[in-house]
Design goal:
The protein is α/β, with parallel strands linked by helices and 405 residues long. The chain has two domains: 6-109 and 245-404, Rossmann fold; 115-206 and 208-242, no CATH class. Helices cover 40% and strands 16% of the residues. The chain has an eight-stranded mixed sheet with strand order 5-4-3-2-1-12-15-16, sandwiched between helices. Helix 1 (6-15) packs parallel to helix 12 (383-404), helix 5 packs antiparallel against helix 8 (178-201) and helix 10 crosses helix 11 (325-337). The model has no long low-confidence stretch (mean pLDDT 93).
Length: 405
């Protein structure tokens, strides 16, 4: 389903003088899979991203480094641990929802984090493993020890800035038992809240929050878990994130770096990071308008796949969320404020291994609704493969045009 003609978007990307593409990763250029360790990335996509240079950034809740990091996927895709750093083939951009920045040769940096916060993050995976083992033994008493160890390895992501519990491995064990799946979701949400409480006990009251993916928005400052139904698996993972690490904050950090490279000066300052960002959408827009001139603001293309909309039980309102919603909404709002034709691109990730609402029946149910302020300009119904083919083509065309000029 294309809300607008793709040719319009192609023309904008190929011919615009000042352009910035900000793109999520999982579900967009990589199909969603139950086991994150099996993720794959197309080789041609990696080279296409390099062609776009500083005009392209990724913005992901995953991480660059570590055994589950996107950098390992790139190395496997290119069959080399050295080539990506030598030729600058790593994906430039922000990981851990805006915390860790990486250049194309793999140089990473992060700011705004204290030593004690990093030390606490190091112990979180062990806290998760203990609770995981107890829960699995209660739910699946016949499961052998070796199988439990395998599920621990698949489910607990010991990432540096965003330790994560992924439910998909246990969902497979539960098969079609919806009540068991709901129980898994609720128990792990409780487990992660216990970890938040432990952080507060250690003096880190305002350091962390839980990012639930996908979610149904927020209530009282906390993300709402999406409980499984027969038609939608609901939330599949929970991350412990540093407070302030949201994708909309990431947009401002990337915009700051982009303008630093293209205009020679970072409008928000050299050391600007996710913890310097104002919280509300309105405040973020005000910050931009106060420090970025219209002639400097690029045309921004935002690309994501995790957006949710679920009708409430009373049927007169919707709960809206999804880990990509906030950054896409900010990009759309900046386009409106600056009178620039920013575009929001949605990639239908329902063709992966993780069941999600689909657009293929020309329906947006479960994703968006008629009253949703977030409007998609383009939808790639056939998922990452269709998007990647388009992206590769566009990157090559823009590279050719720029070289001619």
């Amino acid at each position: 389903m294309e809300i607008e003609e793709i040719s319009i978007l192609e023309s904008l990307i190929i011919n615009s003088k000042n352009i910035l593409i900000i793109q999520d990763i999982d579900g967009v250029c990589i199909p969603l899979v139950k086991d994150p360790l099996t993720r794959k990335l197309e080789k041609k996509y990696i080279y296409a991203a390099k062609l776009l240079s500083d005009e392209f950034y990724v913005l992901t809740c995953g991480e660059h480094e570590g055994i589950r990091g996107v950098n390992r996927i790139i190395e496997r895709s290119l069959n080399s641990e050295n080539l990506p750093s030598q030729e600058g083939l790593y994906l430039r951009g922000l990981a851990a929802c805006g915390v860790e920045f990486q250049e194309s040769k793999g140089d990473t940096s992060f700011e705004g984090i204290s030593k004690i916060e990093l030390e606490f993050l190091e112990i979180v995976p062990d806290l998760m493993r203990k609770k995981f083992r107890v829960l699995v033994r209660d739910l699946f008493p016949k499961l052998e020890e070796e199988a439990i160890k395998l599920h621990i390895k698949k489910s607990i992501c010991a990432t540096k800035f965003s330790p994560t519990i992924n439910f998909n491995s246990l969902f497979e064990l539960a098969k079609n038992d919806c009540e068991k799946i709901k129980f898994i979701q609720k128990q792990f949400e409780e487990m992660m809240n216990e970890i938040i409480n432990q952080a507060e006990f250690m003096g880190l009251k305002d350091s962390f929050f839980l990012h639930i993916s996908p979610n149904l928005g927020t209530k009282d400052g906390k993300e709402i878990i999406k409980i499984s139904t027969p038609n939608d698996i609901g939330s599949t993972d929970i991350q412990l994130l540093l407070k302030g690490a949201t994708k909309d904050a990431g947009v401002l950090c990337l915009l700051n770096k982009f303008l630093g490279k293209t205009k020679g000066k970072m409008p928000f300052g050299e050391g600007f990071n996710f913890r310097d960002c104002p919280e509300s959408l309105e405040e973020k827009i005000m910050l931009c308008k106060s420090l970025i001139k219209k002639e400097d603001m690029p045309l921004i293309i935002g690309v994501g796949d995790t957006v949710t909309s679920q009708k409430n039980k009373k049927g007169n309102d919707y709960s809206r969320g999804g880990s990509d919603r906030s950054f896409l909404e900010l990009i759309q709002a900046l386009g409106n404020e600056y009178n620039i034709n920013n575009k929001v691109v949605f990639v239908d990730s329902s063709d992966g291994e993780v069941f999600r609402p689909s657009t293929k029946a020309n329906s947006l149910a479960g994703i968006t609704d008629k009253d949703d302020k977030l409007k998609f300009n383009i939808i790639f119904q056939n998922g990452s493969k269709e998007y990647n083919n388009w992206f590769i083509n566009i990157a090559n065309k823009r590279f050719e045009i720029k070289n001619k000029n």
